[in-house]
Design a protein that fits this description.
The protein has 374 residues and is α/β, with parallel strands linked by helices. It has one domain: SGNH hydrolase (Rossmann fold), CATH 3.40.50.1110. Helix content is 44%, strand content 7%. The strands form two sheets. Strands 1-4-5-6-7 form a five-stranded mixed sheet. It has a two-stranded parallel sheet with strand order 2-3. GO terms for molecular function: hydrolase activity, acting on ester bonds. Pfam families: Lipase_GDSL (PF00657).
C-alpha cells in the first residue's frame, strides 16, 4: 500500500514538474516588452503631446481601433499598427505605451514603450517642415531614461536580463529621410545640390549605425530593423506626380533600393560585430510591393488610392492627410492604404504576420517567432 502511494506521489510530482517546465518554455518564447522606434508607421500617439503639424489624433483615424472604441489615439491608420499586431501575436500583455503620454510611468513601462514619432527620421533635419517631431537620436535619449527606470523597478541584474532576453526592439524608420527631406519639393533643393544620392545614403547609414550601437550599449539584444518600402508607389507620390494607378516614381524607389542594399550590409556587420545581439531585417520593400502588385490576391480592391481622402478635390485632396473633413470609403478592409502615406490595418495584419512567421524572402536571417525563442 505504501509503495502504491509513493508511486502515485512520484507520478504526480513528475507531472507537476513537466507542466512547470512547459510553462517556463512558453514564457521564454513570449514577448514581455516591446520597445518601438521610428516614424508615423509606428507612432502610437507621441505626436499628440507635441506642437506639430504631424498629428493623427482626429477622426476618422482610429475608427477600427477596438481598444479605444474607435476613437483616435494618434495612430496614423484606421486601426492597429504593425508594432501593435506583432506584440499581440507574440504574447505581449498590453500595447507599448507612447513615451510622452502622462500615464507612461511605473510598472506600465514593463510592457514596453513606443518612442516613434510622425515625421521623425534617422537624420535630425528630417521632418523639420512639421515644426516638432522626435528623431531617432531623441528617441534613443528617451529610451536611456526608460532603461534607468527599469533598473529601479526590477533591480539592475533582473532588469538587464529582462531587456536582453525578453524584450524586442523594433525600428521602423528611413522613409521620411527621403519623403520629408531629400525628396521634399522646393525645400530639399539645397540638400540635393550639396549631396548626391550616394552621399545622402552614406550619411543615413553612418548615423543609423551609431544609433543602433547606442541601443546595444543600453542592453538591447533582439532587434527587428525595417528597410524602406516602395515609397515611389504610395498614393502621395502617385498623386503628386500625376501618375496612373500602375505607375511609380522611379527616383523615390531607386533611392529606397539603394538605401536598402546598404542597410542589409549594415545588419550583417552588426550581427558580426556585436556579441549576443541578433538583428533581423524586415524586407518591407518586397512585402509592400507584393501587396501593391497582387492586391486582388489578398482580397483588396485597390492599392493606388487611400481610403481616407479619396473622392473629389484632385491633387490637393490626395496630399492632405486624413482629417475629419476627408472623404471616407465604406470598405476600409478592401484598401491597402488607409490614407496617402500609411497602410490600412488590413494591410498591417498581413505584413505583421509575414514578419512573425514568414520565410527569408521577407524576414531574415530568422523570423520574429524564432527571434523570441532564442
Amino acid at each position: 500500500m505504501a509503495l502504491k502511494y509513493q508511486t502515485s506521489f512520484a507520478l504526480l510530482l513528475l507531472l507537476v514538474i513537466m507542466r512547470f517546465q512547459g510553462n517556463v518554455a512558453a514564457e521564454n518564447g513570449k514577448l514581455a516588452a516591446s520597445f518601438i522606434f521610428g516614424d508615423s508607421l509606428a507612432d502610437a500617439g507621441n505626436n499628440n503631446y507635441l506642437s506639430t503639424l504631424s498629428k493623427a489624433n482626429v477622426p476618422p483615424n482610429g475608427i477600427d481601433f477596438k481598444a479605444s472604441g474607435g476613437n483616435p489615439t494618434g495612430r496614423f491608420t484606421n486601426g492597429r499598427t504593425i508594432g501593435d499586431i506583432v506584440g499581440e501575436e507574440l504574447g505581449q500583455a498590453n500595447y507599448a505605451v507612447p513615451y510622452l503620454a502622462p500615464n507612461t510611468t511605473g510598472k506600465t513601462i514593463l510592457n514596453g514603450v513606443n518612442y516613434a514619432s510622425g515625421g521623425g527620421g534617422i537624420l535630425n533635419a528630417t521632418g523639420s517642415l512639421f515644426t516638432n517631431r522626435l528623431g531617432m537620436d531623441i528617441q534613443i535619449d528617451y529610451f536611456n531614461i526608460t532603461r534607468k527606470q527599469i533598473n529601479k523597478l526590477l533591480g539592475e541584474s533582473e532588469a538587464r536580463d529582462y531587456v536582453m532576453k525578453k524584450s524586442l526592439f523594433s525600428v521602423i524608420v528611413g522613409s521620411n529621410d527621403f519623403l520629408n527631406n531629400y525628396l521634399l519639393p522646393l525645400v530639399s533643393t539645397g540638400v540635393r545640390v550639396s549631396q548626391n544620392p550616394d552621399a545622402f545614403v552614406d550619411d543615413m547609414i553612418n548615423h543609423f549605425r551609431i544609433q543602433l550601437y547606442r541601443l546595444y550599449q543600453l542592453d538591447a539584444r533582439k532587434f527587428v530593423i525595417s528597410n524602406v518600402g516602395p515609397i515611389g508607389c504610395i498614393p502621395y507620390q502617385r498623386i503628386l506626380n500625376e501618375l496612373d494607378d500602375e505607375d511609380c516614381v522611379d527616383l523615390a524607389n531607386n533611392l529606397a533600393t539603394q538605401y536598402n542594399a546598404r542597410l542589409k550590409d549594415l545588419v550583417g556587420e552588426l550581427n558580426g560585430n556585436l556579441p549576443g545581439a541578433t538583428f533581423v531585417l524586415a524586407n518591407v520593400y518586397d512585402l509592400v510591393s507584393e501587396l501593391i502588385v497582387n492586391y486582388k490576391k489578398y482580397g483588396f480592391t485597390t492599392a493606388s488610392r487611400g481610403c481616407c481622402g479619396i473622392g473629389s478635390g484632385g491633387q490637393v485632396a490626395g496630399i492632405i492627410p486624413c482629417v475629419p473633413t476627408s472623404s471616407l470609403c465604406s470598405d476600409r478592409e478592401k484598401h491597402v492604404f488607409w490614407d496617402q502615406y500609411h497602410p490600412s490595418e488590413a494591410a498591417n495584419v498581413i505584413l505583421a504576420k509575414q514578419l512573425i512567421n514568414g520565410g527569408k524572402r521577407f524576414i531574415s536571417p530568422i523570423n520574429l517567432r524564432q527571434l523570441m525563442d532564442l
